[in-house]
Design a protein that fits this description.
Length: 416
């Protein structure tokens, strides 16, 4: 079955964890002992109902404070699709965690409290979702039960979000759904209390949203993760290159170029755990055999001969900063791009972006925790990259503080 990754987003107390709990509960994707544990915890906290948010708020601090701090991942499946859900924090202090959880999502579900309308953090998360090029957004107007299922309230939020989103990067698909996560209206089952809404409930929308064309199936990219060498006399002549296809389709017989060396060869075969295949497409983990014995190592990339990415030691990127120590001109970090590690220096901080007003501060001298800006990097080894809008894998990287081994920033390449 096709796998869909989704992330929740929105402000504090908009009901993200409750929504995921309701999805899991109504789709019968939780075990009896899990439900019993949540029921006991709900009683201990004095709730008169089963607090389904506790299904995802797993940390003790989260349960005590009633907020989400870290990203919680949950897995479930329906007859139509498999799902990985990232429940991301709503508090501004944990914006970096939201970036982490949403970075691989196909769909972002942005919750808005029907009583409060579009808040600053809702706008911030919507902007980050478009910055991360998540192709499908669902604006879930939650807590409709607290506004008496009022259509006018829903339409006002739709108009406000549409006006705000006009200033963001273009999104291919935006869907608005009125719901009550607490009571289950329009989450898994269609609500009878909002007859004026003729769209799909959330789960049905997630089961049917078309994501196959969101992947780049044109530009073949294969970063080499590991060189498979002969390990026994029976396989003395076997040599393959293992990794995950990051773009396009790779077929036996294709002529390929090895970057950054520029050597050429032809694909002799493609092996998987289940045996050889004729072709591999984006997301598949395979081992590639070539007809020639060429010098290839981890961090190199196989591409189609007539379709090469940019190869450069100077890149510009939008960076989300994730640590207390600010990013400044001249800062030095380890950089991980696809399977390649190198070192990078901040050559220039071009501007800092105000995620609330979307204005650029060209005079900024640093990026603090949770801030976003555009930087120019000088890298010690060439990166084989595409713009992030073309390929989210070859267009992204992380910066690591070598003194602490902590991920300091996440970057999206814009151009050379």
């Amino acid at each position: 079955m096709e796998l869909l990754r989704l992330a929740t987003a929105g402000s504090v107390d908009d009901g993200k964890s409750t929504l995921i709990g309701r999805l899991l509960f109504d789709s019968k994707a939780i075990f009896e002992d899990q439900l019993a544990s949540v029921e006991r915890a709900s009683v201990q906290r004095g709730h008169e109902y089963t607090n389904l948010a506790l299904l995802t708020d797993g940390l003790r601090a989260e349960r005590e404070q009633g907020i989400t701090i870290d990203v919680a991942y949950r897995y479930f499946a329906t007859p139509r699709r498999k799902f990985i859900i990232a429940d991301t924090p709503g508090h501004v202090q944990y914006t970096r965690n939201m970036v982490t959880g949403a970075s691989t999502a196909d769909v972002a579900v942005i919750l808005v409290d029907a009583r409060k309308g579009l808040l600053e953090q809702s706008r911030r998360h919507a902007f980050i979702a478009t910055l991360l090029r998540i192709p499908h957004l669902v604006v879930a107007v939650n807590k409709m039960d607290l506004v008496d299922w009022d259509e006018t309230c829903f339409r006002t939020i739709v108009d406000d979000f549409s006006a705000f989103s006009s200033s963001l990067l273009p999104v291919a698909d935006v869907t608005f759904i009125p719901m009550s996560a607490l009571q289950g209206d329009n989450v898994v089952d269609r609500s009878t209390r909002m007859p004026w809404y003729d769209g799909l409930p959330l789960l049905e929308h997630l089961e049917t949203v078309h994501i196959a064309e969101d992947r780049n199936l044109v530009d073949m990219r294969f970063p080499v993760q590991y060189v498979v060498r002969p390990m026994s006399e029976a396989h003395h002549d076997y040599r393959g290159y293992a990794g995950q296809v990051a773009g396009g389709v790779l077929r036996a017989g294709d002529e390929v170029v090895v970057l950054p060396s520029g050597q050429r060869s032809t694909v002799a075969g493609i092996d998987t755990y289940d045996g050889p295949v004729e072709e591999a497409f984006t997301g598949m983990s395979v081992t590639v055999r070539l007809t020639d014995d060429v010098d290839i190592s981890r961090g190199d990339m196989l591409v189609r001969a007539d379709d090469e990415p940019s190869t450069s030691q100077d890149v510009e990127a939008v960076v989300c900063w994730m640590v207390d120590q600010p990013l400044r001109h001249g800062g030095r970090y380890a950089i991980k791009h696809t399977t390649r590690w190198a070192r990078a220096m901040v050559a220039d901080l071009i501007y800092r972006l105000d995620v609330n007003s979307l204005e650029r501060d060209d005079a900024a001298t640093e990026l603090a925790l949770n801030e976003i800006g555009r930087v120019r990097l000088r890298v010690t080894a060439p990166l084989m990259h595409d713009p992030y809008g073309v390929n989210r894998t070859t267009g992204s990287f992380i910066l690591v503080d070598e003194s602490t081994n902590v991920t300091a920033g996440a970057g999206m390449i814009t151009s050379d």
